[in-house]
Amino acid sequence: MTDTTAIETDTSERAVDTLDHWVGGASWAGDSDRTAPVYDPARGVVQRRVRLASAADVDAAVSDARTAAESWRDASIAKRQGVMFAFRELVNARREELAAILTSEHGKVTSDALGEIARGIEVVELACGMATITKGAYSENVSTGVDVYSLRQPLGVVAIISPFNFPAMVPLWFFPVAIAAGNAVVLKPSEKDPSAANWLAAVMKEAGLPDGVLNVVHGDKEAVDALLEHPDVRAVSFVGSTPIAKYIFETASAHGKRVQALGGAKNHMLVLPDADLDLAADAAVNAGFGSAGERCMAISVVLAVDSIADRFIEKVSERMATLRTGDGTRGCDMGPLITGVHRDKVAGYIDIAAADGADVVRDGRDAPFDGDPDGFWLGPTLIDRMPTTSAAYRDEIFGPVLSVVRVSGYEDALAIINGSPYGNGTAIFTNDGGAARRFQREVQVGMIGINVPIPVPVAYHSFGGWKDSLFGASKAYGEHGFDFFTQEKAVTSRWLDPSHGGLNLGFPQHE
Ligand code: NAD
């Protein structure tokens, strides 16, 4: 969970625009006069403000969504898929425009922003094929003259609450599936980088989506609580830190809603002695420092078997020396962190690790950066001999800090991974098929990479972790996504046949 103190300490006097909500197919200011700053993290300045909705604003948005849901559920499959196809084409054609928004508010470098958009578009493509996934089943003549079939119908209004680190991709994990399935959506994106959500909603309108089917309400806890408690919100999809995910799951469940709440992570990468160490070092650097480590599937801990640990660390360190941290538009490898408060918190973990006896091999606080001196910079950091008792090991740091824990072998490493409260992603690097197969069976984690460092499943599988990385039974997108956003009906039918008349109070049996 990122610290929100930045919001309270902003005293900027500069005149900046305020981003409105998007409700009923248009920008909407709502009634609340509360706002929050949106930073340009590469410059360390407030570049705009964003409205923070009141409970009454949320109620107005849900009411619009409810009206829209009543007619959208009757739109034909052809119409719903048609909107998704058009949306896919528009986003694809304008992905540079969206990438610029992501870089400007999140800070991630342009190539990474384009990667985020590409992975989001995959889910739109999945939604283009919703007819196949939701078509149900038909059993003819289950009893003489009787057929049984199943239907999938939308829920109505659903809420999506998303984190700062993927301002486009995470909303795209959910709303294309929810809308293709016939629901109306209220999306509450992160208040730290909110503009991508408005951009996506405006493009959905351009693609032919009727007004009110996709709404964006900006806000903080007040808006989230209003969604969790609103009687007309039928389901909540949440992605964010574990403490908030747990709160969302418990609160929305207590209000009778379907909930899927994806939480935080601490992802381990196991490097066995027979691994290709160059491939493994490339993977550790890419997965540890891409997006400045602000990814829920980032590798934050490498478990290196003692016999190869020194060689592996040397290779990682050599590669880190070539990385350029800086402004996302300048062809750098890694951008700034999201806020100054978060940067300081991440940097603080380097001191914690050192105080707990770890070796700081590369300290990102000393690394050069290519950008404004006021940007929220922290270079890549490598910490060796990290004790598993340190808070720097246990906590989700969510920054460019890669730790190495030395292990005696496979069993030792497996015990460490399975001892973690998180179970989002993990990876094994080895050339031994037997070891990899054992790992995939024995590790208590939802998404596993075998010689693949960031195993985010493609859209036609589903995304989600185990343990404190996912609360609720449904993962994101894929078949899980369509199950989550629809409810099934089973119909048993018999057409009039006089031979079936007569009274029989016994439980129906098949003839
Ligand atoms: P966060 O939990 O601080 O915020 C997520 C959302 O919850 C935001 O929309 C925010 O406005 C809202 N929120 C924050 N505090 C709240 C409160 N007290 N009550 C109600 N709502 C509140 O997370 P973040 O810092 O934006 O994102 C980073 C976190 O998200 C990391 O922990 C990361 O691992 C996690 N994440 C997980 C996945 C996954 O798939 N498991 C994917 C991306 C990010």
As a percent range, the share of strand residues is 15-25%
Q: How many H/I helices?
A: 17
Might you state the CATH topology name of the largest domain?
Aldehyde Dehydrogenase, Chain A, domain 1
Structural class: alpha/beta
Q: What is the average of the pLDDT values?
A: 96
Provide the low-confidence segments as ranges. Answer: 1-11
The helix content is 25-40%
Top keywords for this entry?
511 residues, alpha/beta, Aldehyde Dehydrogenase, Chain A, domain 1, Aldehyde Dehydrogenase, Chain A, domain 2, 2 domains, 25 strands, globular, disordered N terminus, binds nicotinamide-adenine-dinucleotide
Question: What can you tell me about this protein's structure?
Answer:
This protein has 511 residues and is an alpha/beta fold. The chain folds into 2 domains: 17-263 and 469-490, Aldehyde Dehydrogenase, Chain A, domain 1; 267-450, Aldehyde Dehydrogenase, Chain A, domain 2, CATH 3.40.309.10. Helix content is 38%, strand content 23%. Mean pLDDT is 96; it is low at 1-11. Residues 1-2, 161-166, 170, 188, 190-191, 220-221, 224, 239-241, 244, 262-265, 296, 396, 398, 424, 465, 469 line the site of nicotinamide-adenine-dinucleotide (NAD).
